[in-house]
Design a protein that fits this description.
The protein is an alpha+beta fold. It has helices at residues 2-5, 32-45, 65-69, 92-107, 129-137, 158-179; strands at residues 13-15, 53-55, 76-81, 111-117, 192-193, 203-211, 216-225, 242-245, 250-257, 262-272, 275-279, 286-294. The protein folds into two domains: 2-167, TIM Barrel (Alpha-Beta Barrel); 169-294, Immunoglobulin-like (Sandwich). Strand 1 (13-15), helix 2 (32-45) and strand 2 form a beta-alpha-beta unit.
Length: 297
């Protein structure tokens, strides 16, 4: 495998086995030696580009905490599907965000949503446009190593996928442009969860913040209408509301249209009661924001 494909710079990582729990190769701890031996072998053989990421995947979203917490694999992965009959939520965005945040915190290593989709046990609606959008955006705001990787993407119009990837790339390009003058880069910032405390009952949100320098904290957040799921289109529009963020300095805020990745609004946040308070734009499905909170504001 390494000899055949190792020269390709487009190969980002090696995965030893897809959904290895389906082959019962992770049920018995005695089989863990196979994973360690194979991972060590791949690392020893892959020397052309300084070594790539070595990973594994599991069919159940919970994965294998014993394997994930050790040093055998460089990242943890999650496969998440909205199988409602199994008790799963049809909200693939908030579900993938949950697993990303949980595993990033629990295993102290990068985590990736390696597959996501709608209820693949029903034979229809394998991946809707709404689920594609949510699964691409949500994990990147919850501590994952980038966007989720959609399964069944080949059954959708390729324009959908290109549009989503282009939009979220423009969002993070804007973020880099804003923090670069401060000497910061998204890849080298120590992110921690940032959760709003006053969301309306019909809205969910995930976010992260990180110190950019001694005076400035940068934050990103994704807000999502709960009515937007694998099972239903969103109902109506979420009206504007006041969003409180647990940041104590004055701030500049950029609201971004997630359909295009372009700026909707640039404004200032108001410090009130130890929080930054910002007015959200009305949105039908979701909205994203960038915050730069500085002692000089």
């Amino acid at each position: 495998m390494v000899a055949r494909w190792g020269a390709y710079t487009s190969v980002a990582a090696w995965q030893l086995f897809n959904e290895v729990d389906n082959a019962s190769l992770d049920v018995n701890p005695a089989t863990y030696s196979w994973h360690k031996e194979m991972a060590a072998h791949v690392r020893a053989e892959d020397t052309a580009h300084g070594g790539r990421i070595v990973s594994e995947s599991w069919g159940l979203a919970v994965g294998n905490p014993i394997q994930d917490s050790g040093g055998t694999f460089d990242i943890s992965t999650t496969h998440d599907y909205a199988r409602v009959a199994w008790g799963h939520t049809p909200d693939i965005g908030i579900s993938t965000a949950y697993w990303a945040a949980k595993k990033a915190a629990e295993f102290d290593k990068p985590t990736l949503i390696g597959e996501f989709g709608c209820d693949d046990k029903k034979g229809s609606g394998l991946l809707t446009r709404a689920a594609l959008h949510a699964g691409v955006w949500a994990p990147a705001f919850a501590g994952a190593a980038g966007s989720g990787c959609p399964w069944y993407w080949n059954k959708l119009p390729i324009e959908w996928l290109l549009s989503e990837m282009g939009s979220i790339r423009r969002f993070w390009t804007l973020f880099e442009k804003l923090v670069e003058p401060l000497g910061c880069s998204v890849a080298h910032m120590s992110w921690k969860p940032l959760l709003p405390s006053n969301l309306p009952a019909n809205v969910e949100g995930v976010g992260m913040s990180a110190a950019c320098d001694l005076n400035t904290t940068a934050a990103v957040m994704w807000l999502h209408a709960k009515s937007d799921t694998c099972l239903a289109e969103p109902t109506g529009t979420v009206p504007t509301f006041k969003l409180d963020l647990p940041l104590k300095q004055g701030a500049e805020v950029w609201w971004v249209n997630t359909s295009t990745g372009t700026t909707l609004r640039h404004s200032s946040g108001v410090v009130k009661g130890g929080m930054i308070q910002v007015d959200t734009p009305p949105f039908r499905t979701d909205a994203a924001l960038i915050v730069l909170a500085s002692l000089g504001q």
